[in-house]
Fold Sulfur relay protein TusB.
Amino acid sequence: MLHTVTTSPFQSQALADCLRYSSENDVILLLQDAVVAAIDENNWCQTLKNSGRKVYLLQEDARARGLIDKLTTDVEVIDYTGFVALTITHDTQMKWA
């Protein structure tokens, strides 16, 4: 299953809920304000790393927030083509906002 998270974990429970209810075989895609979770050396970054889930991040959203050089290497940064590929690969999707 593909889980998309769009809100900052510092302002909502969406990422926490996603991690609580998803399984280790699921994939998480951080979009919009959720990309702040992947800033290197913050608590959410470590939580994502320890979750055992494959985590992706939309490059354009990180770039728009000036974060592209501050991201952990533990997430895979993808472009819109990669985003589309994820949606094609995963029949089931859940949005967390």
